[in-house]
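Researcher: Let's run the pair from yesterday's discussion. Sequence first, then tokens, for each.
Model: Starting with the first of the pair.
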Amino acid sequence: MTKPVLVVGAGPVGLTMAAELARYRVPVRIIDKAAQRTDKSKAIVLWSRTLELLDRAGCGESFVSAGLKVNAANILAGGKLLGHVSFAGIDSPHPYALGIPQSDTERLLEEHVGRLGVNVERRVELDSFTAHDDGVDAVLRHADGSTETVASSWLIGCDGAHSTVRHGLGLTFDGDTMKSDWILADVHMKGYPFPVTEMATYWHQSGVLLIFPITEGRYRIIADLGTPEGEVPAEPTLDRVRAIVAQRGPQGLDLFDPIWLSAFRINERKVADYRAGRVFVVGDAAHVHSPAGGQGMNTGMQDAINLAWKLALVCHRKSPLSLLDSYSAERSAVGTDVLKAAGRLTAVAVLRNPAAQSVRNLIGRLMLGLAPVRTAMVEQMTEISIGYPHSPLNGPSVYGLSEPAPGQRMPPINGTNLVGAGDRPLFSLFAKPSAATAQLLERHSTVLDSNLRVPPDDEGIWLVRPDGYTACIARESDTATIQAYLSEKIILHKQ
């Protein structure tokens, strides 16, 4: 019997990891020390790119049905609108941010993984592990105190910022804790001056205030409080939240019936390498950062999706172990970019110097008035601009052919057979039918989808990875380049 992959942690990242592996018919166990999934809102947004990837997994529609489509962002200062940024124009089947509490995200993912035959083993925690060349022996501790030793093929730590797996590997979590306190409040509210489909950020002299719709009548409020007042931030009261909103936000808001009140400090930390032999760290176990932009959970889920198709090809002995080296190379670079972007957004929002605030507001108004700036901002927020320009998996490209270039996302088209769908992690060809492409599909049927897709340019062939990113581009008649790429980087040559 094939040894299972052991996934530690059953939050959104771990559930995504287990679901993707199960979809690709890789034996998997997923454990979590908690007795039940979270009942808190926590992360409240799924961005366009994550929804695209969930679509190809066959479960995207369940999330869209359960969430609220937020299609625009407003930025204000001094009671005046500096900019209105619409998500409507992006090239995606999901031109919006989906407001959905993490409790619902976890419920839907757990239902999805259950349909794939995997049950979360709760009140089970990782006690220790020992990695070998051919697997990982993990000691699990059950709720009654008994222990179990599991022989797994791979170990994947999706166990959050205080990861047992990361600590067990001795990985350094480099970074800092920002010297400011923040409050978070999920409340019911009346009097919001924008449509429920729009979020709002208020730059105020006293600090930033963010209001994000979760469901009809329910909103997430985040505000910075400035310099810390103690060893740990004091838990907020509804009255204090009301006072901050009244000072920084629009007049006439009525806040009531709080669902969750919390205080926090922002950590910005990251490991250098997401892999150590047969052990991986994914999501918050590998990187944590400012909540500005709401990228954390989405980045972690996309970590899992990136790793899953590669691990499935290796587990099914279609690809060499070297394919797994690309996971850390690709996702660590993305993690670094997310850290920097979130840090910049936070630094701009929490400026305290009045002169600096005036300059920020002036430049903000000017920049947000430029269409290219708004487009770039939206593509970054929705994560459709995420790519792997320096990936070791990038193959050759042909000068003069239209994008997407190697490492860039191939935009999905609604209603089509999505790249990466199904129970095998297959590459896709975007090319015109010909005898040469038919021969290529037949020769590499173990790693190529038999369905040809319409290319962005009739003069070229695009080879696209199972996660929807371009691998390489060749001239229409040059199937040899595609053949060479697959042979060099993807196909396992039996000894």
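Model: Moving on to the second of the pair.
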Amino acid sequence: MLRQSSKFSLLSTALLTTATSFALMGSAYAWSLEEAAAPYKGVTIRTIGEALPPLEAMSKLAPEFEQRTGIKVEIEMYEHSEAVSKVMLDLNSKRGRYDFIIQPHRELGKFVTNGHVQPLGDFLQSAELRDPEFKPDEQLYQRLWKEISWYNDQVYGFPFTALSMYMWYRSDLLGDEKEKEGFKAKYGYDLAPAKNWDQYRDIAEWFTRPDQNLYGTALQGKRHEALWYEWLNFLYSFGGDMLEAKSGSECGPVIVNSPQAIAATEYYKSLKAFSPPDTLNYFWDDVMALMQQGTVAQLIMWNDATYAVAVDESASTVVGKMGFDTVPEGEGGTIAQAEGWTYLIPTSSKNKEAAYLFIQWMMDYDQQLRQHLNGGATARPDVYASDEVQKLPYSKASMASNEVAKPKPTLPQSSEITDILVRELSSYLADEKSAKEALDRSAEEISALLGSCAPMKYPVQ
């Protein structure tokens, strides 16, 4: 169906390279997806991403796009690390297997520096490709979009998922009258979802009952990216950080071994006592399964995995028994981490225009709503405001976390920074080093990796 657009303005290329709003210019005209896609009818576009509900939801929507455009969409789904490594192999080889990719935003600096991904300025200026009703400067969470999909003030993509981590808890356990009575008798205050880390630790201790196969929490302690991601929640809320910088694409002094960081790391390890015995072998899939099975009372987890626990009755035994809230407050306040997987178009793509049309179609309100209701994590506040989404038990926690989300490095060396910290945190959890020793070593290696722009603010004594 043809849609009449409002007047729109063409932006200059210079404006597209700065963090300004997008607008289109010119006389009113009719635009339709079918007409825009006509030159690409019959082509196949291939993508790759993480095998989680958001991508599964996209795969269910793709046939509608195929029917309307004649463009076939093939989707490959893999575990997080494998999805990242397969993309790097393809980009480095320049084979062009993937016409668009869905990748964690920490990889963006590396992709841009190596010339692997396409800036989107030309697509956003194209009267043939740009749907005038697509207005990302108005329709997306601006701070999250700029963090997830921009680099050095230039736009390279759009958020596939706007992610943060927050607290999951068993509302049936915390609301049980006998549990409340016993908890207050021991700790001297009412049992309720934790607002600070002292309360979180008390609740974890209270519900640790190995004889009942129940544990107060579960750490994602495996030597895997999941460990780093989980630890960041503690680091940020305790007032720490990795670098002293204002945005993910900026370099700055290394502060990962600050007193706040050491305190956060020591607290994090203290929760090991209230986690299942095998917690150092867990990553996000494992702790999600534990919550689905009703084995854990509370934990810190991703918002895009919430659907599989809170809504999907075929996978979860605790549907209707879950509650969600922001990460508990520490000295640094209530802070979530800004994270996300982003749509990007490789420079080696053989079907860039068709790929752009699909991405743009997926960012439309209707597709974003349907994807979100089936496990997505939209970057559109108007989708969160819809009646359907507001009924979901985790919507308020997701919105609150988006509002306090903090960026992390997207520098070209971001993957190496993650690897260093995963290794050193694993050594600490395994009792091979103290928290200070592990973080001092991390700070030294990160500073050496980044060079003169990243001196150590807390030199090792």
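Researcher: Give me one sentence on the second I can quote.
Model: The first strand starts at residue 3 and ends at 4.
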